[in-house]
Amino acid sequence: MITFTSCSHQRPAYTPIIVYSQTKTEMGLEITHPNTCIRGCCHSDSIPLHLPPSSHTLLHPIARGAESVVYDGTLDGKKVAVKKPVLSTSDDINKFHKELQLLCKLNHEGIATLVAAHARPPNYMFFFKFYEFGNLSQKLHVEEWSPSIDQALKITRQLANALQYLHNIGIVHRDVKPANVLLDKSMRPHLADFGLSEYKQDLKKVTMENWRSSGKPTGGFHKKNMVGTLIYMAPEVLRKEIHTEKSDVYSFGISINELLTGVVPYTDLRTEAQAHTVLEMNYTEQQLTAAVVSEGLRPALAGTESGAPPRLLSLIQRCWDADSDSRPSFDDIITEFDLIIGNNNSSTVEENAVTESSSDDSTKTVQPFKENINWFSQGENILKSVYESGFDVKSWSKYSENSSLYVPVLSWGSFATCGRRETMEDTHFLMPRLWNEDDIHIFGIFDGHRGAAAAEFSVRAIPRLLQTLDCTKSPTDALKEAFINTDIAFRKELNNQHKYKAFIQKDYRPGCTAITALIVQNRLYVANAGDCRAILCRAGCPYPLSKDHVASCLEERERVTSLGGEVKWQLDTWRVGPAALQVTRSIGDDDLKPWVTAEPEITETVLSGDDEYLVMASDGLWDVVSDLEVVNIIKNTVKDPGMCSKRLATEAAQRGSNDNITVIVVFLRPVSTAERIY
Ligand SMILES: Nc1ncnc2c1ncn2[C@@H]1O[C@H](COP(=O)(O)OP(=O)(O)OP(=O)(O)O)[C@@H](O)[C@H]1O
Ligand SMILES: [Mn+2]
Ligand SMILES: [Mn+2]
Q1: What is the pLDDT of residue 355?
Q2: Which 8-state DSSP code applies to residue 55?
Q3: Which of the residues in the chain have pLDDT under 50?
Q4: What is the DSSP letter of 172?
Q5: Which of 204, 257, 571, 572 is deepest in the core (most CB within 10 A)?
Q6: DSSP strand pairing (587-588 vs 21-24)
Q7: SS3 of 9, please?
Q8: How many whole angstroms from 175 Cα to the centroid of ligand 2?
Q9: Torsion angles phi and psi, residue 53, rounded to 5
Q10: CB-based contact 516:443 (threshold 8 Å)
């Protein structure tokens, strides 16, 4: 017989008592001990790892990344940035703990300071010091900040210090790029975003694990390993070899060059001149990768006119050397840099002396007298002619108070080329964040004919009119009015010129087609007059957002004839009036009014998470590339809106488009690091 001795599942004789004690951090935050995350894997002596709910508030989202949302908020009354990662799988939670462990170890003024974290369910959050000036990429390319050479050198030096510190404690950042450099009020840089960082000794293991988990070196493998953003990635990373700390040196070199030139890597035309063969302004991901890896393609190096000392330029070139062993370490970079800065200070003095003496001469030079009419500035003055008295700047931001609305996350880019024509008659504008509102954006393209005057006038006039709106008008009415008022003002100005300025030809009747896309929160309004076109890519498929207004369209032909206009088949197609215009709506074309109206057709679309991007272009693109082809081309292009625009325009040029080509691409949701690659 078997007897069971009772095994004691009873409580032990005593329960260990957890002693909750409190200490204070330098910032005056209270730390409750034991100070660990829920799992007990993250520790810190100085950073609280769990917080009472009353200690913090989240205010507004300031950035929605692919893997997290960053809010501004407060912690014990002080302004902070709160990074809330999107945690959907257990992998994501492991990643959070890993990032937190790492952040707890960091303490350097060149690195974004973690002041607290909350690492217990249901909330996982990082609290960082708030850096008022946002990230360096935004500063350079959205605000178009151009730093003085001294500012650029200071930022370079401080960033190098931060990376030297990281490498010395054995950490590789793996995502060095201007978007991960935050600026404080004094324009000092702080390296952020340790989401991809690893300890040097783990790099090999991490690579192998990812390799094994995906079975073969494609698909998942690439996605996990090709970290960072493509254009900042070192050749060895692009070749899917193991990352080293020298891969950070490469990304640092590319980033510093971007700081000096103000140009997004590979978008400068000068680069194309250097890049031969396959590239020819035609970057698919594979081609860019191949060119970087095997042809040694690099962004156009900053010129000495940027004020950068030649030794710094050669240092950048060594940083982006194809052979990682030939790249300097951050110890080397700092040593070299101090020599450079030492020299630069003395040369600045000399240069100043030179400029001062030469400035005497420049006062003697006389500005040449310009007779040409500047239609851009005429357009800028539109407010004077439309509003007699003052106006209020108001916005639609409170158009809908519903805070649970879907709000797209935008990034945008454009490319314009005169193609085979001798003159450029297309114009366009990008005005994200109208009135400084995060959720109102407008973009527009104007395709001029019979001269560029109407397109030049409208590109300044339309955004001006929209900026000074009466917010009681609906966006649809506002757009319509802006088109019509611009047309009236332009024709009035042209007639004035005809009357008083003899040097304008009598039969000079320029016009332009126009398309604008206005985004207000989750609504997209496309206003179109003419044959520019906009499409929306939703869940992988193209949807037209505008209809072409041309005389070959029966509806338009009937509209024109019902107003008394004449439409005739001439040469190859239907054309309007004595001027034989193909388009039936436009701004300008004074001799064809009112038949060729400036009144736009407007579509309204409610945006949702399925909406990927918007493409707007002049007919130079659409003549030779179909809606579906546009979607397919973007599918295999580097997911950067500027590059996609350029790729589409150059594709059209290659297919023989003989018109000016302007393309605007607006991504409507964040592109994750992985998506940017595949
Ligand atoms: N401490 C801060 N102060 C001010 N702005 C911040 C701060 N931290 C983050 N941001 C803003 O949020 C953006 C995203 O932050 P971060 O790069 O850490 O998030 P992420 O989700 O990893 O983004 P990514 O999509 O680049 O991987 C930054 O580029 C910056 O504009
Ligand atoms: Mn980032
Ligand atoms: Mn990240």
Answers
A1: 33
A2: G
A3: 1-18, 211-228, 269-281, 346-371, 389-390, 673-678
A4: E
A5: 257
A6: unpaired
A7: coil
A8: 8
A9: -55, -30
A10: yes
Tokens coding 539 = 């869940």
193 pocket-lining for ligand 1 (C-beta < 6 Å): yes
**Which of 572, 573, 571, 601 lies closest to 585 in space, CA to CA?**
601
Q: Give residue 354's identity as a one-letter amino acid code.
A: V
Render pLDDT for 507-524 as a digit per residue (tens, 0 to 9). 789 999 999 999 999 999
The whole-number pLDDT of residue 427 equals 96
Q: How much distance in Å is there from the Cα of 194 to the middle of ligand 2? A: 8
Residue nearest to atom 22 of ligand 1 (CA): 193
Report the C-alpha gap between 551 and 175 in whole angstroms.
Answer: 53
Considering every ligand atom shown, identify the ligand nearest to the alpha carbon of residue 72 and give its number. Answer: 1
Query: SS3 string of 97-108?
Result: HHHHHHHHHCCC
Residue to mutate (ligand 1; options 75, 83, 127; most atoms within 8 A of CB): 83
What pLDDT score does 392 carry? Answer: 53
575-589 burial, b at 16+ Cβ within 10 Å, e below that, comes to bbbeeebbbbbbbbb
CB of residue 130 inside a 6 A radius of ligand 1: yes
Distance CA 405, CA 94 (A): 31
Instruction: Determine the pLDDT at residue 583.
Output: 96
Phi-psi region of 451 (alpha: psi -120 to 50; beta: other; left: phi over 0): left
Ligand lying closest to the C-alpha of residue 66: 1
CA 216 to chain centre: 33
Interior CA angle at 239 toward 312 and 65, to 5°?
A: 75
Residue with tokens 């034991």: 34
Given a contact cutoff of 8 angstroms between Cβ atoms, the answer to whether 89 and 71 are in contact is no
What is the Cα gyration radius of the chain? 29
Q: Is 63 in the pocket of ligand 1 (CB under 6 A)?
A: yes
Q: What is the pLDDT of residue 376?
A: 85
Is residue 483 in contact with ligand 1, taking CB distance under 6 Å? no
Taking each helix axis from N to C end, the angle separating 330-362 and 245-261, rounded to the nearest 10 degrees, works out to 10
In angstroms, rounded to a whole number, what is the distance separating the alpha carbons of residues 386 and 346? 54
Token pair in block for residue 198: 């690893």
- Locate 643 and state its tokens: 């590059």
Q: Quote the ipTM score.
A: 0.97
- The closest alpha carbon to 311, from 265, 352, 344, belongs to 344
Question: First and final CA of the chain: distance in angstroms?
Answer: 68
d(CA 502, CA 463): 31
Of all ligands present, the nearest one to the C-alpha of 126 is 1
Nearest CA to ligand 1 atom 7: 81
If you count DSSP H runs as helices and E runs as strands, how many of each does the chain have, helices first? 19, 24
Q: Is 97 exposed, middle or buried (0-12, 13-18, 19+ CB in 10 A)?
A: middle
Instruction: Tell me if 600 sits within 8 A of 529, measured CB to CB.
Output: yes
Ligand 1 pocket, 490 CB below 6 A?
no
Please give the Cα distance from 127 to 81 (Å, whole number): 6
**How many C-beta atoms surround the C-beta of residue 130 within 10 A?**
20
Amino acid at 661: I
Query: How many CB atoms lie under 10 A from the CB of residue 551?
Result: 25
Q: Which residues are identified as catalytic? A: 175
Q: What angle do CA 497, 500, 505 make, to 5 degrees?
A: 55
